[in-house]
Amino acid sequence: MADFPDNGRKMTKDNGIPMATRRTSVHGEWSSRFAFILAATGSAVGLGNIWRFPYLTGENGGGAFVLVYMLCVLGIGVPIMMAEIMLGRRGRQSPINTMRTLAQEEGRSPSWQYLGWMGMTAGFLILSFYSVVAGWTLAYVFRTASGVFTGATADGVQSIFSSLIADPERLLAWHTFFMVMTTMVVSRGVKSGLEQAVRFLMPALFLLLLLMVGYAMNTGAYDQAIDYLFKPDFSKVTGQVVLSAMGQAFFSLSLGMGAIMIYGSYLSHTASITRMTFIIALMDTSVALLAGLAIFPLVFAYGLQPQGGPGLIFMTLPIAFGQMPGGAVFGSAFFLLLVFAAWTSSISLMEPIVTWLVENKRMTRVKASTLAGGAIWLFGIGSLLSFNLWSEYKLFNKTFFDLTDYVTSNVMLPLGGLLIAVFAVWRMSAESSRSELGLSDGFGYRVWRFLVRYLAPVAIILVLIQVTGILAWVTGRS
Ligand code: PFF
After folding, report:
1. Residue 242: inside a domain, yes or no?
2. How high is the mean pLDDT of the chain?
3. Residue 13 located in a structural domain
């Protein structure tokens, strides 16, 4: 990224977009469109795909969840991602300042900036538990390399995981290590290092996942896994399943909290938002499905419970690593890549907070990242204790970890997405959105507008108020 020494409001040459709405980011711009795709994919692909997607699929009964998830990605996620990138590129500041500026420009209430505040809070909360799980992954890099899984039984692998999460000191060490790593990168700016890392990371991760799927095909339970993942049993669709699937679509695509908005703010004006969005969504969904195809054959072949919860991948993949030749090296390489994937996502979770502190509190990047990183680290301790000392403390039957995850993914991100959609099409003029998206008033733009104007908001509202619960109430009364 190149740095621009202006105040973020420098006007550029007109390319069909009114001069007054063109600004550049004080934080710089991606070196190319490809760099944006890499960074946004780096944000999207992470623990959400490889850790969260499989375990939620298992908890929510398989195929029906996968189907609803994919429908949410296509019908809600893709159009909202376009809207979020579009707003970011037009505002070119931290999400809070972007929303304030755009609302002012469109003659709307300054309260729209609270969308940015909610996003920043969601990023803070997500990163606090994300870092704990990234810590487990880090621990597994070393554990797998040490060869403890060689020839281990399913029971043995499970007890290794249980003993890790039962030890708060070890968890704290890994959580701390991961937060320091993230804070260091963010403090140096989202620069070419991130682009380089993702350029290597994504193909490597893809390749390793493909190999894992290849291995899983020979476990004897592959057909059963395919049926489980892709033959929806509609009797399993409840309001909770739909809510989890929608939350997962937002979580996995990094939507609704300003991460993609801030990355969009570094995007050049000539890039096609539509094409980029499709590429990112496709890559993200493929990684999640590959992870499912690698994990569920193992689950069935070794008689494990699909609803094994957040530890699912840590209790299944090591069995495979323990049995394949060279599994110790291969397995630790896999977990290492997963750490990097988590890292590139974490950077995007912290970026909106740091840019805001730099813009509004006039802090240096280093100071802002240290402050944000420290506070997130502290809050994360609540999540790591949820697996041991605080496991009995529950609110709404959820531990601190479960509750933070549930509220952010299932409520805050969809709500953020809803507000982004409402602003982009109900509060911003069609002319502004069309010119920023770089679309003519043709079929593509109309489809986008329809989805963001009606389908996405209605679907989100219905799911948020738990459509089936209400239906049950209504039908119960009639
Ligand atoms: N999309 C990331 C993942 O799937 O692991 C997590 C994430 C990153 C969620 C950034 C939200 C976000 F804003």
Report:
1. yes
2. 89
3. no
